[in-house]
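To: structure desk
From: M.T.
Subject: fold request, one chain
Message: Could you run this one when you get a chance? Sequence is below, nothing fancy, just the single chain.
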Amino acid sequence: MSGYDHYGGLPPHQPTDTSLTAAAQALPLVNRLQARVLQYLRERADGATDIEIQEALQLNPSTQRPRRIELVQKGLVEDSRMRRRTPSGRSAVVWRAVPPEPQQLKLMPEDPSC
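Reply: Done. Structure tokens follow.
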């Protein structure tokens, strides 16, 4: 599941030739941005709010938030059920990377010297 099933596998776009072309050209960038957001969350045991992700990765909110939503839809990121205060004093969801399933973990080869 790409997260774009309603859009033919491409980022959301209007049904025009120019919009379709722009969506197709944006797909590699979107995938890289998703990877950056996911990697950042995997490195943070305490998770992060959208604002924290935006500041750390220097991403515009309208770029970061859709990438995080896509990762949630793919089952790679979830609400940690924790909340933190934003700079404005509001409560914000703390997002975390979903731990990989055991079959997704690569086993280390046994060291014969052990």
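Reply (cont.): The mean pLDDT is 79. Let me know if you need anything else for the meeting.
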